[in-house]
Fold this protein.
Amino acid sequence: MRGNLRALLYLSPWLAGFAIFFVYPLVSTVYFSFQRYDLFTLEPVGLLNWEYFLKDQAAWTAIRNTLWLVVVMVPLRVLFGLGVAQLVTRLKAGAGVYRTIFYLPALVPLVAGTLGFVFLLNPGTGPVDALLSAVGLPAPDWFGDPAWSKWGLTLLGLWSVGDLMVIFMAALLDVPKQLYEAASIDGADGWRQFTSITLPVIRPVLMFALVTGVIQTLQYFTQAEVAARVASGATDSAGSVFTPGYPDQSTLTFPQWLFQQGFRDYAMGYACVLALVLFAVAMVFTLVLLRQFRFAEEES
Amino acid sequence: MTPTARRTATRTALLWVARHALAIALALMFLGPLVFIALTAVMTDRQALTSDLWPHTWDWGNFTEIFEKAPLLTWIRNTLLYSVLATAFMLVSSIPVAYALARFRFRGRRLAFLLVITTMMLPPQVVAVPIYLIWARFHLTGTLWPLILPMLLGDAFSIFLLRQFLVTIPREYSDAAKVDGCGEFRTLVRVILPMARPAIAAVALFQFFYCWNDYYGPLLYAGTDLDNWTLSLGLAAFRSVHRVQWNLTMAATLLAMAPVIVVFFFAQKVFIEGVKLTGVK
């Protein structure tokens, strides 16, 4: 009993935070989703917000864009991170220097990195498109072309793959050396060793990276917002309003639409509907993650 | 050397060359954007709008000009205030929580840990509306305080990371301290904290840089008054607010990146070890 009280004391800051910044807002979000609220008037509207959600074209565009990033960008980042990690662990000379170089972009502030990328990929100002056409590849207008803008964001995501690389490097170095020795005596080549030893051993780490990658991508906001803002050349002068998604709503992600509805158009009740949709999807992936933690706890 | 041995040696050498060639190519691709930003930052604004890569003249004056075009010093001050206070508050509140989760045996310990992971994973946008309304009631919207004050009540990611490190410290150390008559709190301060220094340094750096780089938080709370903005917020609007040229935008971008990169070079090991803690096996 004394132990429980002591734990309560140590946990008290977090318990208070959990109540104020999680439980209360979550309950409150459910309540507001049945209201019309614009900071001034509060009026119960039943299921109106939910019905509107089903008809809201922009919301569904935002869902499609977010799904695109989840399906394309997340696996590409994991594959690329694994490839780079595999390469660096195999380098005998200079591994430390390469690790530093490959990790560095992951630290660059998101806004700064995004600004750099928009300018770098802009055909008029950066060298990338000139290089691409020099070798006969298509040279798209990246952040100015709805068909390519999400690929531009994907390139930005691949550039900052450093944190995944570090996690994968640690996992790769943990694979017992004897397994490889035994396999090469049995005549297994590099690819066989990778698929039959490396992958099974580091599978939990890969799963963890995939699931956290998905959850992070459900929150994808800053890069899309900044890229659209800069590429569109929107000015913040009085009278002009920035709408996210440039070009042609192609970079509009779900959290951006939620932010726009709740804090720019002050449709706060409707924003709460969007919030609950986001919560439901994020919870599914969080449960997958929690299951993994339970297994990890049991094994240790 | 037998022919087979020679063949293996040639193969090894070729592999070595191939790996290093690939590594160098990748390194150029990773460094390219940074070099590009740095070079553009010292171009004239006319040249920045061409695809020429090498500056014709080195306009170092760009770095002083950006301070005249935008209230950069105010933004840097606000960003520092946000980052330093949030980090300090996070440490004070999160270390005891992480310690309790790692060491104490109590009912609901597993549940508490799972809830920490859940809140860590929850997109901040999910509960944004009611939390915004709380701060509006206290007339704190339009300031950075809604981003700083909650750190007094613990940060899930930091708690998680610290807990992952603290469980690896052998129990014998704290047991020995208790035999010597230390209470639980003194054991934490005198024995555990010094041993956990690398993990504490890692979460402090992560928190600091999270705040330094944060865009969503200030966008939601800082409001329209430029005097309350942070560097990230200012940077995103830099090109549009004053119709500033690209070369100056890149100079400001470089300025926002510089501290992060400098600190990284001094504290690289702390970072790498910290990132490893985030990947759970």
